[in-house]
Structure formats: C-alpha cells, structure tokens
Amino acid sequence: MERAIDIRSTAHPQKKAARSLWKAVLQHQMLYWMLLPGLAYFIVYRYVPMFGAVLAFKEFDFSLGILASPWADPWHKHFTFFFESPYFSQLLTNTLLISLYKLVFGTIPPIIVAVLFNECRTLWFRNVVQTLSFMPHFLSWVIVYGISIAFLSETTGLFNRWFTESGLDPVPFLTSSEWFRSVLVGTDMWKDMGWGAIIYLAAMSSIDPTLYEAARVDGAGRLRMIWSITLPGIRNIIVLMLILKLGHLLDAGFEQIYVMYNVHVMPVSDIIDTWVFRVGLEQMNFGLASAVGLFKSLIGLVLVVGSNALAKRWGDEGLW
C-alpha cells in the first residue's frame, strides 16, 4: 500500500512537468516553427557530413562508394602521411601564426568600434558610419584582393606611388615574405571589424541605463563609465567570442590566403587548408583530406573545452 502511494506521488509531478512543458511549447509554437529552418540547415550541412569523416580511415574508391571502399592499412595511414610530411612543421607554424595574429589583432578593434558607436550621440552620423563599416564584410576576397592591389601593388599601388614621389624605395607588400602576413591580418581586420562590432554593440544595449545615471551623478566622466560599466558589462561576450574563435584556431582563412598568396610568399603563407586543397582534393586523395579535417576538428574541440574550463575558473559563465 505504501509502495503504491510512493509511485503515485512520484508519477504525479512527472505528468505535471510534462503538461507544463507541452503547454509552454504550444504557447511559443511560432518561435519553434521559426527555429526549424535553422535546425534543418545545421542537420543537413553540419551533422550529416560528419559521416564523411569515416573516409579518414578508408582507401576511397569512387566506383565502390564510401561504405564499400576498403579500410586503410594501417588504419592511421593518412594521418601518418600528413604528420610525416616534410611540410608539416611549416604548415602548422604558418597556420598557428596567422590564426594567432588574427585572433590578437582582430579582437580589440571591434570592441573599440562598438564603444565608439555606443558613445556617439549624433544618430545620423552613427548610422552612416555603422553602415559603411558593415559593408566590407559582404565583399568577396577576390574584390578585397583587387582593392589590395590598387593600394599595395609594388608598381601601380597608391602607397608605393607616394613612396616613389617622396624619394623612397617601393615596398613589395604583396610579394614579400616580411610583409605578407601583415597584409593578411590587416585586410582581415578591415573586412570584419564593423561586422564583429554588432555583437558587442548588442551586448552594450542590454546594460542597465541606471548604472550610467548613478555614475554620472557621482561625477564619473565618459572614460570612467566605459572602463567601469561598459567593458565589465560585455566581459562575458568578449570571453564567449574568444572561446568560439579558439575553436577555429587551425582555420587561418583558406579563401583569403588561396586568393592572395603567390609563389614568392609561399613559405610564410602556405597553411594546412591550402596544402590539403592541393594534395588532397586536386589529386583526389579524399582520405588524406578527411584525415586532416578530422585532426583539425579534434584540436578545435580540445581548445574549446579547455578555454571554456579556464573561463569558468576565472569566474565567467563560459559556453555551457
């Protein structure tokens, strides 16, 4: 008898919770319908292609397909080929250096731009500058490279014309190993600086306005309010964006580098993705391409999990 009462007492809250959940789903059903296209995109283009990772352990044959293709012997054959490649250390160094440069120099400018937009009190000027700063994000890297040639070409570039007219020697920005990484980082910053500021600007809009009013009453100036209210208010978003970027540390920007690099700068610009494209895809070695992709994904997963744990230890919320 007591046992039957216990079962009823535990089952009742579960049914009540299920009804509450279903009621909440029905109440917000429009939001769930709007969620479906995004969910379908990630399932089709993000999760289903994960099945292709099995190619990293197979000798892929077009006529047999993925499932019927024989397994690689040994199973780590493609990984060993990549790790023992004479280009491995150079590829990894270039990839990490370019990614770290972009991470370091590409994080601060969007925050500064967002703070400037947030502090601007002339609405029409802010809207114009904000729109202009977003536009480069929608340009393809081919167009960005064309703009780079117009400004940085050794013979016809605007900057080198100024140098020549001033009696200085022209600088081979696009064909010099000393300058090419700086060009990559600079063009990447210019392209995504305004777009990256959107997230920080949205985070600033959620800061309680009474904090600014109280600080103003206490005599705080704009710089003090930025330092003591605005930046601490978006600290969680800054940490979140850093964690997300760390997950792509081995993605140094294939499209940008593939469009902009040349034989003169190959030693400092050839990254893992460009090498995989040449050796793995152009030569149809799909097993090697999948193995390198799997290696990058595992490194990204370790970095995201590690940085998330560090963020939590330092008092931030992290991703989960």
Automatic annotation (TrEMBL):
Localization in the cell: Cell membrane
The record's GO CC annotations read: plasma membrane
Q: How does it sit in the membrane?
A: Multi-pass membrane protein
List where the protein spans the membrane.
Answer: 30-48, 96-117, 138-159, 193-212, 224-244, 286-305
Pfam families in alphabetical order: BPD_transp_1 (PF00528)
Q: Read off the InterPro entries from this record.
A: MetI-like, MetI-like_sf, UgpAE/MalFG_permease
Q: Carries keyword Iron?
A: no
Residue intervals of the ABC transmembrane type-1 domain: 92-307
What is one GO biological process annotated to this record?
Answer: transmembrane transport
Q: Keyword annotations for this protein?
A: Cell membrane, Membrane, Transmembrane, Transmembrane helix, Transport
Q: Does the record carry NAD as a key word?
A: no
| Family per record | Belongs to the binding-protein-dependent transport system permease family.
Can you name this protein? Answer: Binding-protein-dependent transport systems inner membrane component
